[in-house]
Amino acid sequence: MRPVREQLEHDRVIRLLQAKYRRKFEVAVNLGGQQSVSVPIGQSPWYPDLILQAPGRGRKVMGVVEVETSESVNRVEAMSQWAAFSRIRGAFHLYVPQSMVDVARQICGDLQIPVTEVWAFTNVGDQMRFALVQRSAAARPARRGAATSAVRRKAAKAGTRGAPARKKSSRPSRAQKRK
After folding, report:
1. Which of the four, 3, 8, 29, 137, has the lowest number of CB atoms within 10 Å?
2. DSSP assignment letter at 167
3. Segment 65-100, tens digit of pLDDT
4. For residue 57, what pLDDT is reported?
5. By residue range, what is the domain housing residue 83?
């Protein structure tokens, strides 16, 4: 249980994140003590703060979001919840207060909990600000055509189209022999 002030801040962050993620996903929310939507991990249901689902009929779980307050960033919380949420097939996003970022990263490192993204949030006046602090290398989506664009750059340097650049040989080419 969190103190009332922290629970209100926790629920406010969840509502803001729900609006943020609603653009790309269908978002299910577990506010406060509610346990309305679960994610099966192993044989038991788990209740993360936000569940990001693919839009449409399938409703495949694309990721989960866990929001923590300064009171709940600790090893017990990490072992009981973060470790379980990191085992789902989708992404695991962790939101912590700006003052607890180093502690959360240290705990995740010590307990070897893979987190897709770690975000920090701060209250600036009446606005909440979010900043991406850490993104795992596996979380970065491969750019479409990254390999082909590298081939095209090499081909452009060599003056050919579409074909990969070849090593220049010391032998003269046919065009050079004709001259």
Report:
1. 137
2. P
3. 999 999 999 999 999 999 999 999 889 999 999 999
4. 75
5. 4-139
The pair phi, psi for residue 169, each rounded to 5°, is -95, 165
pLDDT at 83: 95
Confirm whether 145 is domain-assigned: no
Domain count, the chain: 1
Residues in CB range of 68: below 8 A, 6 or more apart: 10, 77, 94, 95, 96, 97, 100, 104
The model's confidence at residue 35, banded by pLDDT at 50, 70 and 90, is confident
Average pLDDT of the residues of the chain? 83
d(CA 142, CA 118): 20
> CB–CB of 26/54 below 8 Å?
yes
Domain harbouring 92, CATH code: 3.40.1350
Q: For residue 5, give the amino acid letter.
A: R
Residue position matching structure tokens 């606005």: 127
Q: Write the DSSP string, 61-121.
A: EEEEEEE--TTT-SHHHIIIIIHHHTTSSSEEEEEEEGGGHHHHHHHHHHTT---SEEEEE
Kindly state whether residue 30 falls inside one of the protein's structural domains.
yes
User: Is residue 178 domain-resident?
Assistant: no
